[in-house]
Design a protein that fits this description.
The complex is a heterotrimer of chains A (about 400), B (about 300) and C (about 425). With about 400 residues, chain A is of the alpha/beta class. Chain A folds into two domains: about 1-40 and about 210-400, no CATH class; about 55-190, 3-Layer(aba) Sandwich (D-Maltodextrin-Binding Protein, domain 2), CATH 3.40.190. Helix content of chain A is about 65%, strand content about 5%. Chain A is elongated, with a radius of gyration of 30 Å. Chain B contains eleven helices and 14 strands.
Chain lengths: ~400, ~300, ~425
């Protein structure tokens, strides 16, 4: 009972401060919008808009038949829009964003290629950008087909016994190019998301908030420790903790009381964000209500235990902010709440995958994106609870060693 | 000759609250003036105006002839202020604190160093000068708090209740310090609600209540205000009302009030009046259970002037 | 002189604050390092990708009378089990689509490749309705794309064989020659060898590839991809923490007010403008020192080239003015140092996020737009230009915008302060 009294006291201290509410609820909501907006704008598919990637075309080799064929292939492409450039305007055009990259046909290209020599085409682009990556992908396929046509032309002409007959070579090349334009391997491969309930088209399961909502939720639940961690510091500063210790309350009861309060705060915050996500953003947490509840409870327990640990480690208010922000940055970044872990390097992803924040994300994503049910929540819940236990044990250990 | 401190019709109001109303008093150079009054009397507000923290709503005050309104910089140069609460940087050492505050009073170089050493000597913290202030005991912090106001050898030093909430030993140390400073020629304005401190230290005492100076003079002059009146505290076995009227009309009783279950009477001669009081009590069937006779003091003066005890 | 004394005192106190040191130096370096190790290795071309777990369901069988030695499905399957990809692809067989789906759901595998029974037969017959299905975990994007590319390029190889055969047949006919069946195997073998070499060169030896990728030239030094990405990321961190440090340092005025030392300062013969200016200088100096340390660390730890001297200085100064201005404005709104956590955490994180500071290495149109309205957005703009090697002349506009923002915010903040402490 006294544990609950203590928890209620903590809660009233936090919620008395209006700014806490702003911090705990309004900000994450705003962020969810921004992040969702950001993901959405990255994948906008407006039919009326030309979504082809602008690619600069620099031909330093006149009108040889190979480069002409490449030009035609790319001109007919649905993915790129050619913009003719000269060598010296390439960098400037990329910098100004007029083109996402430029393909440079080197001097003597047709001659070299026809002779079966290596003559690389150069793609100038920033491969860190999505457009740069896409351009490389598209051009790789086109160049493969082009070079294959060239190779086939030579092989065919040789087999027929006219390896140097220009008209034969021309005919064969036209025929090969024609055949290639009809072969479409990509159409033989169909990609499908494995989603239990409803099929989705985008990686984020139709709704951009499916990634943003749980991500921000996890991030801000950790950031909320700024407010709950301060209670413990305040209690030590004002000597009320000392006074509490002089009562008949046992130390584990004091720790449990504070933990309960922090759990209450974090869980309330998560619950509000879940409700907001469901109602306002159409993020389907209710796909498995019990699963969502389990993951949320376990997540809240882990974060509350971490808050408690921070409260026992720090010396003053400002350190609470430092630790809470660091915890937020580290667990958010490593746990894949900002970007999916698969884009990170192996080591990083490997570390990230064991993070409690990553397990919380997995728990939510099982429900939101994979469309799985309650049973998919057991594993993440169990792991989060184990983490909660470890952090709680550490907090008690620190608490008993603490000078009050 | 002008006064070291001169306060003329000083007023300060916060909205409808008149915190200080027409306060006037003076202190000669080299004297200790105590501002005595209960909590909330307006002492701190008066001092804040003298030290340039608050602008007066009306009236003026001067320190060593410099008006705090029209030439605050010059006034502040002659002034050292010891705030009621510890106002030091907890994460700086005692010495670093003193150096910083010395610089704020315009001290530099060798003079600064010499003064810091002297002040550390005065406050008895030479050994602990390199320790951070937050490691100090309450009394030690108070001593540094005072020391920071002494660095520039001010002509006038204002101390705002410097002995609130500290142990008797530190209190003694501070009172001795004040006397020592005064002996060196500093004018001290000392606020307190302890009448013993005011009595022990002061050349002049100004009594403040509800924003007004209600009495001003030397200790003896103030005592004379109550004449030869002696204070008698009486407790009885019944409701005070029954006997109060009878005693009020008794010859020799200047005034009588009921305070906290005790009847407090001011009488001209206790030897003559006491038997009459016993008589009057017997007549209404009230028995006296205790009697305490006090010779006149500042407490009596305050009671005489306001009908309330100093420490309400 | 007193101004400097006050500034110096504030600086000494700053160095004794674990928090400030942590936020000003440790946090941004730690986070940048974290990101450096997470992305750095990819960008530098080392294959340290997370392992892709691929499940293969190969139902394909060799049709009767086929010229092929093995069904296409087997070629596709063996591609994932090949020794050369074992460092980053971990493949396993599944008997049917249902079990593969289950494995994706259980996150045992991220991608499953389902090759239907009649794939080879239908492919050779030109029936395009029979397709290979790639099942993917909806939370993944890179792994599935890689797998799809692998399957497509293998099919391209097969298609190439078809194209080659078709061309050879056509040209023989056109030349009135009868195709000698004996030449066909050699013909195919030559083509296959060429194709395999071509692919290998394309993916593994950039110097022999038919298509090479180059980053756009920057004016001045041409940094590599890692450097430019780290530059972006670190500038985001630099800006966020510079604003945080400025605001936190400016908060010393509230702290002094709570400690009673501000009131005491007012009792000394020091006028209020001197006190405010002293504190302002301390903040400015803190921000400069922090920036200098972080910029130097960025240069030598992460090899970031911050740009031409002029551009660099304009960016740095703009950042300085804006952060001190915003710090003054923010702190003037705060009543106590206790509120600071909320206000700083809230306001600075929000502003930072909508300005794209945490996503500086990715271009997000919405953030670019919103960045036009925040000081952080303009600082980021300035650093991006400087990092891209732009000359100082290109940075004049952002610098002027930042200076103006800084002055306006400072003026408003200072006015509110004067009102409060007058």
């Amino acid at each position: 009972m006294r544990i609950i009294d203590l928890a209620l006291k903590d809660l009233s201290q936090v919620f008395r401060d209006k700014r806490s509410l702003l911090f705990l609820v309004a900000m994450p909501i705003a962020f969810t919008f921004f992040m969702g907006f950001a993901y959405k704008s990255g994948s906008d598919n407006d039919a009326s808009k030309d979504t082809r990637i602008p690619l600069g075309w620099v031909n330093n080799d006149g009108n040889g038949y190979v480069s002409t064929q490449l030009f035609e292939m790319l001109s007919n492409s649905d993915s790129v829009r050619l913009v003719e450039l000269t060598s010296d305007t390439v960098d400037e055009s990329i910098r100004t964003g007029e083109v996402a990259g430029a393909l440079i046909v080197p001097t003597g290209y047709n001659k070299q290629v026809s002779a079966g020599n290596e003559a690389p085409l150069t793609l100038v682009t920033d491969t860190n950008s999505t457009n740069g990556q896409s351009l490389y992908q598209i051009l790789r396929t086109s160049v493969t087909k082009l070079m294959s046509a060239v190779e086939i032309t030579h092989l065919s002409a040789e087999t027929i016994g006219k390896p140097n007959d220009a008209s034969e070579l021309n005919e064969a090349f036209a025929s090969a190019s024609q055949a290639w334009s009809q072969a479409d391997s990509a159409s033989l491969v169909k990609v499908e998301m494995v989603v239990e309930s409803a099929p989705a088209e985008n990686w984020y399961g139709d709704n951009p908030y499916n990634q943003a909502s749980p991500g921000i939720l996890v991030q801000f639940a950790i950031m909320g420790l700024v407010s709950s961690g301060q209670i413990l510091v305040q209690e030590r500063k004002t000597r009320t903790l000392q006074r509490l210790m002089s009562t008949t309350m046992r130390s584990w009861e004091i720790v449990a009381g504070h933990m309960l309060a922090m759990f209450g705060i974090v869980f309330t915050q998560i619950a509000l964000l879940v409700v907001f996500g469901q109602l306002a953003l159409g993020v389907n947490y209710m796909n498995a209500p019990l699963g969502t509840l389990l993951v949320s409870v376990a997540l809240s327990l882990w974060i509350a235990a971490m808050g408690l640990l921070i409260g026992t480690v720090v010396k003053d208010d400002s350190q609470v902010i430092l630790f809470a922000l660091m915890a937020m940055f580290i667990f958010s970044a490593l746990g894949g709440t900002w970007f999916p872990l698969e884009v990170a390097s192996g080591t990083f992803a490997a570390i990230g995958k064991v993070m409690p924040s990553a397990w919380a994300m997995t728990g939510y994503q099982n429900i939101l994106m994979r469309g799985l049910g309650l049973e998919s929540a057991w594993m993440p819940t169990g792991i989060l609870l184990a983490y909660a236990f470890v952090f709680f044990a550490l907090a008690i250990w620190r608490f008993n060693k603490m000078d009050v | 000759m002008s006064y070291a401190i001169e306060v003329k019709n000083l007023k300060k109001s916060f909205g409808n609250l008149q915190a200080v109303q027409d306060a006037s008093f003076t202190a000669d150079a080299g004297e200790v003036l105590s501002l005595l009054g209960p909590n909330g009397a307006g002492k701190s507000t008066t001092i804040s105006m003298l030290s340039g923290l608050l602008a007066p709503t009306g009236g003026d005050a001067s320190i060593m002839g410099h008006s705090v309104v029209s030439e605050p910089e010059s006034a502040k140069k002659s002034l050292g202020v010891v705030p009621q609460d510890i106002a030091l940087y907890p994460d700086l050492s005692a010495r670093e604190n003193l150096i910083f505050w010395g610089k704020m009073y315009g001290l530099r170089g060798a003079t600064l160093k010499q003064r810091v050493d002297e002040v550390l000597e005065i406050i008895g913290l030479v050994d602990r000068q390199k320790d951070h202030v937050d490691k100090f005991s309450g009394g030690m912090k108070r001593r540094v708090n005072i020391g920071a106001a002494l660095l520039h050898k001010p002509d006038v030093i204002i101390m705002d209740e410097p002995t609130v909430g500290i142990d008797p030993q530190s209190r003694r140390h501070i009172l001795d310090n004040v006397k020592a400073l005064n002996r060196q020629g500093m004018t001290v304005l000392y606020t307190t609600h302890y009448m013993e401190e005011a009595a022990e230290l002061s050349d002049h005492i100004a009594i403040m209540d509800k924003g007004r100076i209600i009495a001003y003079g030397t200790h003896d002059e103030l005592i004379k205000l109550v004449g030869r009146e002696t204070r008698i505290d009486i407790t009885i076995n019944a409701e005070g009302g029954r006997v109060l009227e009878a005693w009020r009309s008794t010859e020799g009783v200047a005034r009588i009030d009921a305070l906290d279950g005790t009847l407090t009477a001011l009488v001209d001669d206790s030897n003559r009046v006491l038997p009459r009081l016993f008589d009057a009590a017997s007549k209404v069937g009230v028995r006296i259970t205790s009697v305490d006779i006090q010779e006149p003091n500042l407490e009596t003066v305050f009671l005489h002037l306001t009908g309330r005890a100093l420490r309400d | 002189m007193k101004i400097l004394d006050i500034a110096l005192k504030d600086l000494i106190r700053s160095t004794r604050s674990l928090f400030l040191i942590g936020m000003a130096f440790a946090a941004p370096l730690l986070i940048t390092a974290l990101i450096y190790f997470s992305f750095g290795s990819i960008a530098s071309g080392n294959v340290d990708m997370p392992t892709i777990n691929v499940g293969v369901v190969n139902l394909d069988v060799l049709p009767a009378n086929s010229l092929l030695e093995a069904p296409l499905g087997e070629s596709i399957r063996s591609m994932f089990f090949d020794e050369s990809v074992q460092s980053w692809i971990h493949a396993s067989d599944y008997p049917d689509e249902a079990s593969a789906r289950g494995a994706v759901n259980a996150q045992e595998i991220g991608v499953a490749v389902i090759i239907p029974a009649s794939f080879t037969e239908d492919y050779l017959a030109g029936n395009k309705d029979t397709v290979i299905t790639i099942l993917q975990d909806p939370t993944l994007s890179i792994g599935p794309t890689v797998v799809r590319d692998m399957v497509t390029s293998l099919l391209d190889g097969v298609a190439g064989g078809g194209v080659a055969f078709k061309v050879l047949t056509e040209r023989s006919e056109a030349n009135g020659q009868a195709l000698d069946p004996a030449t066909i195997p050699t013909f195919f073998e030559t083509y296959s060898t060429w194709y395999a070499n071509f692919q290998r060169a394309m993916f593994h030896s950039p110097d022999k590839a038919a298509l090479v990728v180059k980053s756009p030239a920057e004016k001045g030094d041409t940094g590599n991809n890692v450097q430019s990405m780290m530059g972006m990321i670190m500038s985001g961190q630099l800006i966020f923490f510079s604003f945080f440090t400025g605001a936190y340092a400016m908060m010393s005025i509230l702290q002094e007010s709570e400690e009673g030392t501000l009131a005491r300062l007012f009792t000394t013969p020091t006028n209020r403008t001197t006190i405010l200016t002293g504190k302002f200088l301390a903040v400015l100096f803190t921000v400069i020192v922090q920036g200098a340390v972080l910029l130097t660390a960025g240069r030598y730890l992460f090899n970031i080239r911050w740009g031409e001297t002029g551009s660099f200085l304009l960016s740095f100064m703009g950042q300085m003015f804006a952060s001190v201005g915003l710090a003054t404005l923010l702190v003037s709104f705060i009543k106590s140092s206790k509120q600071a956590g909320f206000v700083f955490g809230g306001a600075l994180t929000t502003l930072g996020m909508i300005s794209g500071l945490f996503t500086a290495n990715i271009q997000i149109a919405a953030f670019d737009l919103m960045g036009n309205f925040t000081p952080q957005g303009w600082v980021l703009k300035a650093w991006k230009l400087s990092l891209a090697g732009q000359p100082a002349s290109e940075l004049v506009v952002p610098f002027l915008v930042l200076t103006t923002m800084g002055i306006v915010m400072f003026a408003v903040g200072a006015m509110l302060f004067r009102r409060r402490f007058a």
